[in-house]
Amino acid sequence: MTASSRSLSQVLRHHLVNPAALGYLAVVAAVGVWVGVDALFVEHADASLAGVWLFLVTAPTSLLFSALPGALPFVGIVVGAVTQAFVLGVAYRWFFNRPTWRAGLGNA
């Protein structure tokens, strides 16, 4: 099977299901849970900046969506998380699947 004959779902699965991408998505999910708990259950005398962490963890992609109206900045968090997890997955696959060059020492 060549790279051009793979479907989009196969390419996404190939690059998103590895330790680097899944670890990054777990960090983003943990920050999202922390932001949700902070917003729902912690009382603040003034505004909390916990929600900014979701944008920082998924930056720079999510920051491209931050000036858009309505709920689109929150779509940017999801797009940023998936985009960066994909890039991490590509880097992980490149690093661990490249051929290793062994130094031939002969009969030394």
Please, could you describe this protein's structure?
There is one protein chain. The protein is mainly alpha-helical. Helix content is 59%, strand content 0%. It is built from four helices and no strands. Helix 2 packs antiparallel against helix 4 (72-97). The longest helix has 26 residues, at 72-97. It is elongated and about 70 Å long. The model has no long low-confidence stretch (mean pLDDT 86).
Compact summary:
This protein has helices spanning 8-16, 19-41, 52-57, 72-97.
Q: What keywords describe this structure?
A:
mainly alpha; 108 residues; 4 helices; 0% strand
Q: Radius of gyration from the CA trace?
A: 20 Å
Give a count of the beta strands, DSSP E runs of length 2 or more.
Answer: 0
DSSP helix fraction: 55-70%
The low-confidence parts are none
Q: Helical stretch count?
A: 4
Strand content: under 5%
What's the helix-strand series?
HHHH
The largest pleated sheet is described as: none
Find the structural class using helix and strand composition.
mainly alpha
Described by the principal axes of the CA atoms, the overall outline is elongated
Give the N-to-C terminal Cα separation.
Answer: 41 Å
Kindly state the mean pLDDT as a whole number? Answer: 86
List the helices and strands and how they pair.
Elements lengths: L7 H9 L2 H23 L10 H6 L14 H26 L11
Helix pairs in contact: 1-4, 2-4
